[in-house]
Amino acid sequence: MVYSLTHIGIMIDSCAFHPPISDEKKAMEKLWKLDEQEIIQLEIAEATDEEMINAPLRFRERLNSRICARDMANTNEEERKIREIRDILFPGKIKLTDSDKMDVRNVFVASKYSINFFVTCDKNHLLKKADSIKDKFNLKVFTPCQCLDIIEKKLRGDQVDE
């Protein structure tokens, strides 16, 4: 499948704003630059105050107008989908932490708005379950490096198998 790069939706998890790993940090900077050049469009996953505060300063104002969700009322079907995401990310876990709930919510919001890629550094839950999330919700979960690699291949016109 070939995308027009200006129509690739990429949601950024707050843990990917400032990755602790050097390569991931460089990849994230390149993604921010491509967004700044309007080659791709980055979105902040779920506009919580915490995530907005952690966003790079130069993007807060601009991204604040492109937030995908705030205080959404969910339909029964959406509540079912949220339960499915919870079961994938945290099977058997009875009480979710606030961070766990945000992970579930972010995957839900990204899938609801047909985002192409969800970028995160969360290896414990999101990246570990990337195949299941892709299979069930057609949402590709990548590290910043993986996402940048796909974007750069698409920019060169290479055929990309996601």
What do these coordinates show?
This protein has 162 residues and is of the alpha/beta class. It has one domain: Rossmann fold (3-Layer(aba) Sandwich). It contains seven helices and four strands. It has helices spanning 22-36, 49-54, 57-64, 76-89, 98-112, 130-137, 144-156, and strands at residues 9-12, 41-44, 117-119, 140-142. Strands 2-1-3-4 form a four-stranded parallel β-sheet. The longest helix has 15 residues, at 22-36. The chain is globular and about 45 Å long.
**What proportion of the residues form beta strands (DSSP E)?**
5-15%
Architecture, CATH level 2? 3-Layer(aba) Sandwich
**What would CATH call the class?**
Alpha Beta
User: Given the structure, what is the number of helices?
Assistant: 7
Topology, pairings included?
Elements: E1 9-12, H1 22-36, E2 41-44, H2 49-54, H3 57-64, H4 76-89, H5 98-112, E3 117-119, H6 130-137, E4 140-142, H7 144-156
Parallel strand pairs: 1-2, 1-3, 3-4
